[in-house]
Design brief:
Layout lengths: L7 E6 L1 H17 L7 E6 L2 H17 L4 E5 L30 E9 L3 H12 L5 E9 L11 E5 L6 E6 L1 H4 L3 E6 L1
Parallel strand pairs: 2-3, 2-4, 4-5, 5-6
Antiparallel strand pairs: 1-8, 7-8
Helix pairs in contact: 1-2
């Protein structure tokens, strides 16, 4: 007998809304920079990586600028790695540029406790010393445990402790959607 732990699920964002938010984030990132040539976008695997690639594409299409793209897998940098249940899908980080003196825009799908972002910054510093790191997220759901805030936010969705935000992207999940799941 299968037990369904999902009591209630509702759609927060559809494909068009996600696309519009990522486009807005792309414009905000460019508008916030004095020197576009000094920035690089780094996505946190897995869904942050997809959002970062879409941002890079938007910047190219709208500003005709090629921006460096990097990918971080923070699995082994997380402070809860030994407690994490299940087997995470681990892949290598890929930072194909020199991070020294770059203005890094770190991208993730959902900002929650801040622990993933802290882990990403730890790993990023293993590659060098950027001039700055700013954070962009598709969804900020609140409940911070660390003093971390996003500089670029697609949408704020305050949640309760028994709710989770699930970002689905077509490249992985076959569709673009953001769900609120109550447990």
């Amino acid at each position: 007998m299968e037990i369904n732990l999902h009591k209630n699920k509702s759609i927060l964002l559809n494909k068009e809304q996600i696309s519009n938010l990522i486009l807005r984030l792309s414009h905000e990132i460019i508008e916030s920079q004095k020197n576009i040539d000094s920035i690089a976008v780094v996505g946190i695997r897995t869904r942050g990586e997809i959002i970062a690639k879409r941002i890079i594409q938007n910047i190219y299409e709208n500003y005709k600028k090629k921006i460096d793209l990097g990918i971080l897998d923070v699995t082994f940098y997380r402070d809860d790695f030994s407690e994490n249940l299940g087997s995470p899908k681990v892949g290598p980080s890929d930072i194909p540029f020199n991070v020294n003196n770059k203005n890094i825009i770190l991208i993730d799908d959902v900002l929650y406790t801040g622990r993933t972002v802290r882990a990403a910054m730890d790993e990023l510093f293993a590659f060098g010393r950027p001039d700055s790191i700013k954070l962009g997220v598709l969804v900020d759901r609140g409940h911070r445990e660390l003093p971390i805030r996003a500089d670029f936010i697609g949408k704020n969705f305050p949640t309760s402790d028994n709710e989770h935000v699930h970002v689905l992207v077509s490249e992985i999940d076959g569709e673009d959607k953001v769900n609120l799941v109550k447990y």
